[in-house]
TrEMBL record:
<comment type="similarity">
    <text>Belongs to the universal ribosomal protein uL18 family.</text>
</comment>
<dbReference type="InterPro" id="IPR005484">
    <property type="entry name" value="Ribosomal_uL18_bac/plant/anim"/>
</dbReference>
<dbReference type="InterPro" id="IPR057268">
    <property type="entry name" value="Ribosomal_L18"/>
</dbReference>
<protein>
    <recommendedName>
        <fullName>Large ribosomal subunit protein uL18</fullName>
    </recommendedName>
</protein>
<dbReference type="GO" id="GO:0008097">
    <property type="term" value="F:5S rRNA binding"/>
</dbReference>
<dbReference type="GO" id="GO:0003735">
    <property type="term" value="F:structural constituent of ribosome"/>
</dbReference>
<keyword id="KW-0687">Ribonucleoprotein</keyword>
<dbReference type="GO" id="GO:0022625">
    <property type="term" value="C:cytosolic large ribosomal subunit"/>
</dbReference>
<dbReference type="Pfam" id="PF00861">
    <property type="entry name" value="Ribosomal_L18p"/>
</dbReference>
<keyword id="KW-0699">rRNA-binding</keyword>
<comment type="subunit">
    <text>Part of the 50S ribosomal subunit; part of the 5S rRNA/L5/L18/L25 subcomplex. Contacts the 5S and 23S rRNAs.</text>
</comment>
<dbReference type="InterPro" id="IPR004389">
    <property type="entry name" value="Ribosomal_uL18_bac-type"/>
</dbReference>
<dbReference type="GO" id="GO:0006412">
    <property type="term" value="P:translation"/>
</dbReference>
<keyword id="KW-0694">RNA-binding</keyword>
<comment type="function">
    <text>This is one of the proteins that bind and probably mediate the attachment of the 5S RNA into the large ribosomal subunit, where it forms part of the central protuberance.</text>
</comment>
<keyword id="KW-0689">Ribosomal protein</keyword>
Length: 119
C-alpha cells in the first residue's frame, strides 16, 4: 500500500527530529512550522519541556501579516534571534521538521544566523 503525502511528511519529521536529538543533546531546539500562508518558529527547551521564545508571521508587530514570501520568513528569523538573545540563548539546533531546507525555511535559518544565533 502506498504512503500518502501526509504519512511521508510525518515519517520524515520523526526521522529528522530523532537524528538531531541524538547529536545535539543539551542545546535548545529551534523548531519551524511552515504552512501555505504563514511560518512560525519556537525555541524549545526539551529538558524542561517549555517554549523559551517564539515568533510568527502572524504577529502584527513584524509587519508581514498576509505576506507569503521569503522576506517575511527572514523577518521572522531575525525576530527569533533577537528574542533568543533576550532570553539568554545564543546556541540552538535547527529542527526543520519534515520541511525541506529550501526557500522560506532556509531564509528563516539564514536570518537567525545573521541575527547572532548559532545554528
Amino acid at each position: 500500500m502506498a504512503n500518502t503525502k501526509r504519512q511521508l511528511f510525518l515519517k520524515r519529521r520523526l526521522r529528522v527530529r530523532n537524528k538531531l536529538r541524538k547529536v545535539n543533546s543539551g542545546k535548545m531546539r529551534l523548531s519551524v512550522h511552515r504552512s501555505n500562508k504563514n511560518i512560525s518558529v519556537q525555541l524549545i527547551d526539551d529538558v524542561a519541556g517549555r517554549t523559551v521564545a517564539a515568533a510568527s508571521s502572524l504577529e502584527p508587530s513584524l509587519g508581514v501579516v498576509g505576506k507569503n514570501n521569503v522576506e517575511a520568513a527572514a523577518k521572522v528569523g531575525s525576530a527569533i534571534a533577537e528574542r533568543a538573545k533576550k532570553a539568554g540563548v545564543d546556541e540552538a539546533y535547527f529542527d526543520r521538521g519534515g520541511f525541506l531546507f529550501h526557500g522560506r525555511v532556509k531564509a528563516l535559518a539564514d536570518a537567525a544566523r545573521e541575527g547572532g544565533l548559532k545554528i
